[in-house]
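ESCALATION

Customer reports they have been waiting on this structure for their group meeting. Please prioritize. Original submission:
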Amino acid sequence: MDINQLLINIVGGTSLLLYGMRLASDGLQQAAGTRLRHLLSTLTTKRWMAVIVGAVVTAVLQSSSATTVMLVGFVSAGFMSLEQTIGVILGADIGTTVTVQLLAFNITQYAFVLISVGTPLMLATRQKQYNYFGQVLNGFGFIFLAIKLIADGAAPLKSEPLVRDGLLALTSNPFLAMLLATALTVVIHSSAGT
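Update from on-call: job pushed to the front of the queue and completed.
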């Protein structure tokens, strides 16, 4: 196993994942703009609706962190109250679970389809809405591609006794496993990526 190639694949895939998340998030925010703010403040007046909104927004953005950062901005700007955001944050946790489930369906095979549609929309059209929609598609395409790169890059680790023994040791120490997962999530800003 070439450790340098392994590190390049994992670090490069993680970088592409973060870029894709930012691209999709920025595109959605630009496309929705003030409509998103109005929609969020209207839909989150009831707690159960706030939870559903949080789950949907996080599943679309592929990041509960991005959802939370947007919410902090909305509360700071006075668009939403703190009470409204609590339900959305709880829904964001549900949305993260949905995101991980989507990854289990092997949607990575559609990465190039999304990029093939998104790039012409970004570059060949003059209408801003199409540009933003293309940006969102490219973001999701990069996310799916990054997940494939990380999975393919880490595949040789399955046969490494040191890695296998380390993971088995973590199963007997859940606190250490939680700390490791927390550290990885903080580093790459994505629990789905971890």
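Sent to customer with the following note: The chain has eight helices and no strands.
Escalation resolved.
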